[in-house]
Predict the structure.
Amino acid sequence: MTADELRSLITAGLPCEHITMEGDGRHWFATIVSSSFEGKRLIQRHQLVYATLGDRMKTDEVHALSMKTFTPAEWAAAQD
């Protein structure tokens, strides 16, 4: 899987204001900014992202995905 394919899967299932993806085809690191994360704990945010990937995590199509998740306000504050 490519970074563009993974990014497309996530953005198709989750409205993202910003997303970056780095990785080697199996191990990925993402930074994701979404208003859908408002009021959600970290585990709930990650579950939202994993839900966009469906069975791809279980079938090893995406072996590992590490992520940092931000609301738009958190992201704006982190950029200052």
Remarks:
- The mean pLDDT is 92.
- The beta strands are 18-23, 27-33, 64-70.
- Residues 42-53 form the longest helix (12 residues).
- The chain has one domain: 3-74.
